[in-house]
Amino acid sequence: MNALRRIHAMVLRYTYLVRGSWPRILELFYWPAVQLVLWGFITKFFVTNSTWLMQASGVLLAAVMLWDVMFRGHLGVSLAFFEEMYSRNLGYLFASPLRPWELVSALLLISLIRTLAGVGGAALLAIPLFDYSIFGLGLPLLGFFTNLLVMGWAIGLLVSGLVLRYGLGAESFAWVSIFAIAPLSGIYYPVSVLPDWLQAVAWALPSSHVFEGMRAVMFDQVFRTDHMIQAVMLNSLLLMLGAGIFLKAFDSARRRGLLLRIGE
Amino acid sequence: MNDPVIEVVDVSKRFDEVLAVNRVSFSVECGSVCALLGGNGAGKTTLLSMLLGLLLPTSGRVYLLGTDMLQQRYRVLERINFSSPYVDLPQRLSVRENLTVYARLYGVRKVRQRLDALAGHLDIGSFMGRPYGALSAGQRTRVALAKSLLNRPEVLLLDEPTASLDPDTADTIRRFLKDYQQESGATLLMASHNMLEVERMCDDVIVLRRGEIVDRGSPAALLQRYGRETLEEVFIDVARAPEKGPS
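YS: structure for the whole thing
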């Protein structure tokens, strides 16, 4: 019960942050909506010029929304953690009874809320604007969403750990990591498009299995359990790695005295 | 003699080439007000950080309320608290929001009443709704003190508690802390540069120099030992002495 109370306190802290700033509230919905509109018009154009897209016209829209799940999931964790570092608050937080895993749980929870709000808003907007509902994917959508969210969390924790270890100068890892993964994940094209040697790297990413699985549902109306199982297994490893690096960085920060010194 | 509430046993801390704290041992009795006195780089903040478990010592043991802070710190963190000018609260949250979050982290019951009581004692009521980042340095110090008292700590660790406060406010805060200590029986350990503060508030002074304890005693005993009239003169003697101990 005490742990839940502390997690709730941290969720409250991030809620206060968003609630007190209308640009932050707007931002939650703005970027997913802009992405959706852009890819919606691209789809409108290509659906009459591409035989591939004609078979499943919503594939680009589904891809952009699912990619945003990972993107928002990652930023929901890492930017919330950077916020503690910008405000030089880590010393007080970790002198309180808050355990590192409780902070991590709060970061994941707030990331889920932000992702649901942002991507959920875009998904609803797609229905009247482009006559496409991602909810038509059915139950597999839950699997795709969960896997991409967990992958975003794992990368967010990994990046937060690196920034805790190396300082805020390393915060660009947050952007570098996500944009490095994007072309390998086969978001808008099949993994087979990649050169052979790069395909091996792509298949080591849970996201590649999710997007390949998504295309199987949309083009062939088949749910590929093999892709889903591989995504879950890879995500389990990635999440353990992310959490491990974060906790290791926390220990290192305690040895090096960074919890009191770190900040802007 | 009261039981020790704080026990530091042969603690050292090395940062690469720098030995910040060198084999320091001391204990602080329950209900006393003790000062860590020393110049810049004496190791005061490093010691406070190790007491809280925010910093791991290179060697030695630290016990608070009988608990090993290296192994079981979470057992006692709800019963202690601290404030420091080197740490901040989230800038964009209001003072009330910040204190509410910390009250919940510390498991404070009747949060609103506790916040209102502290707002009255520390005169922060007029800016409870303002963002922490918009406050003056003195206002921030008072808010940090309010944070440190939220859970009615049995052990209160204070790093320069009246830094940035004008003399009038600093005096009010000192009285409040002293009253709090007397009413609650809490143990206070403070790092301070302010000699007047140490003389007025503390029963016991640990004098540090370059990471080592060079002297210890009540303010009156130190004055007598060094043949000085003020602790400031004692401080200067210690800072400039080539060897440890009275000159």
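YS: worth flagging: The beta strands of chain B are 4-15, 18-29, 33-37, 59-64, 67-68, 80-83, 155-159, 187-192, 204-209, 212-217.
IM: good catch. Also Chain B is about 35% helix and 25% strand.
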